Amino acid sequence: MRAHALIAATLLITWPVLASADLATTRVLQQSLQRLHNAQRSGPAIPPETLSRLHETLQMMTRDQIDSRLFQVDKAIFDARMAGLQAQRQRSHQQTSLHKLQEQVQSLSKQHQALQSEYAQLRQQLASKTMTGAQTQHLQAEIQQQKQMLQAEEQHLANLAKQPQSTVSPPPSSSVSSSNAALPSYGKALTVYAQVRAASDGVHVSMPADSLFGSDNRLSQDGEQRLQAISRILKQSNVREILVRVAPQPLGANVATQRAESILRSLRRNGVPDQSLALATGSGLPAGSAELLLVNTSPTS
Fold it and tell me: Is there a contact between 246 and 280 (Cβ–Cβ < 8 Å)?
């Protein structure tokens, strides 16, 4: 409004000159004045230096109305400066929009990082719960097996107590019991996971091969868990040599060798010393069986 009043005052001062000016020229001057007025009202504040130059150009247009050539030059300067003001405002608007977009991108990046971190934590919690659940199921299975063995032994003792002393005969499993009695402490612990017997050449730990392997001759999940449990016991023993044996398979000796190598690698992964592990032939083993022969051990350790 102040600029509009300034231009209006200039027009009043030069009124005698306007009397001889062309009406079309006067109309152009009024339109230019209105353009500046609209620019001041519709947009952000015009920089003082730019506004001063626009005022100066309008004063020149007012003064040069009587000379059409000078007036056209003044008008061209005014139009150029107005175009420059418009371009300046557009750049400012674009910079403001770009700054807002950058802030949005930064905000989205932070949200993405937060979500990634939360997702990683959830995966870790899920993995921990899954592992805990698997360990719990394994322990429950071991406890149930121990309960069954204890119940069977209690039932056997109860049956013996009911019989007359003179008619009590050794149970069919007496040879197995005597064999178990000769087992070292770790051998007795292994009976939870396999058939164990002591012999002159060492302690034999036998398992059905199907309980360790799937249909593709790879260790099954149950087989891996069983070997993990066996490895924990072996690591606490004084076993100096462990021979891994697998009975020849219908598909050939090569399959038996591959299975034996898989068992050996599993024991090694679970911490059994590599220098104590070795492969041995499975000849003489019952069909479909796998065995760990623990040699060079003390039967009482």
Answer: no
